[in-house]
Amino acid sequence: MSETGAVDRAIRTYLDHLAVEKGLAANTLASYRRDLRRYRAYLDAVGVAELDAVAPATITEFLMRLREGDADHPPLGAASAARTVVAVRGFHRFAVADGLAEADPAAGVKPPTPAKRLPKALPLADIEALLRAAGAADTPLALRDRALLEVLYGTGARISEVVGLDLDDATGFLEADPEESVLLLRGKGGKERLVPVGSYAREALDAYLVRARPSLSATGTATPALFLNARGGRLSRQSAWTVLVKAAERAGLSQDVSPHTLRHSFATHLLDGGADVRVVQELLGHASVTTTQIYTMVTVDNLREVFATAHPRARDS
């Protein structure tokens, strides 16, 4: 391609393709347009007027410019730069498929990997305040809410796994041996795992099963769901999230609390207590221990803080 404005026409064709054939949302399309406009300006600045003149090094240099920033643009973080590179890669791939270019120079250019954000765990005192707030009243819904949050924190389960529980998935409760209390969780990809239930979550579940679930069940049609809503149907993921948010508000917690906060807290508190990372991996249902190891970073930070405070030669006197 050697005609003046060929790159501009190719970009317009690609954006039309995204809008008409891919049906991208307006906001997403605007992001692609903005990213490709910046890419086009970069190509102009380095004297590249044809798609076939773009080399892998051209795109790598563009990525470096994104991260460093310039007089007109502030430096981009890894996530924002990755989004821009994804737009550029898609554009070049389309150009080859549509016969607008002979080769794809972006095929080997990988977007930057965003830095892993350390999960924020709640202190145990905040967890206890949250659980007390959930079960402050002696009503069927309060008993359900306390049991729900005790299970979320006590097992480290995902919220979708907990609201998906059926009665048959809870074994070893009520009059059974407490050491046999387990829940059968169904995780991502349909993978199942058994997780033990500690005494606090067991007591909360027993109270819910005896004093709350029968009355909730009477308000609707029969359902095998373990956790029920006020109408006797299965508690939804959104409603369970609302239970947690309201309990956090009543407990006066300033930190934003989500179901994943309880999952993070479960993992972090186990590791702080000396649990093996592979045991935590099994409890969380992670396919790879690598996913679980992010929690060990939190624990190392805690150890570092204790060391800096307690060791006589860890800091300047």
Characteristic terms for this protein:
317 residues, mainly alpha, DNA polymerase, domain 1, hpI Integrase, Chain A, 2 domains, 14 helices, 3 strands, 4% strand
Q: Averaged pLDDT, please?
A: 86
Q: Give the total of beta strands.
A: 3
User: In angstroms, what is the radius of gyration?
Assistant: 27 Å
Q: Can you identify the CATH superfamily of the largest domain?
A: Intergrase catalytic core
The main β sheet shows up as: 3 strands, antiparallel
**CATH-derived architecture of the largest domain:** Orthogonal Bundle
Strand content: under 5%
| Unreliable sequence segments | none
Strand order of the largest sheet: 1-2-3
Number of helices, counting only DSSP H or I runs of 4 residues or more: 14
Which fold name fills CATH's third level, the topology of the largest domain?
A: hpI Integrase, Chain A
SSE pattern, N- to C-terminal? HHHHHHHEEEHHHHHHH
Quaternary status: single chain
Distance between the termini: 69 Å
CATH class of the largest domain: Mainly Alpha
Helical amount: 55-70%
What does the overall shape look like? elongated
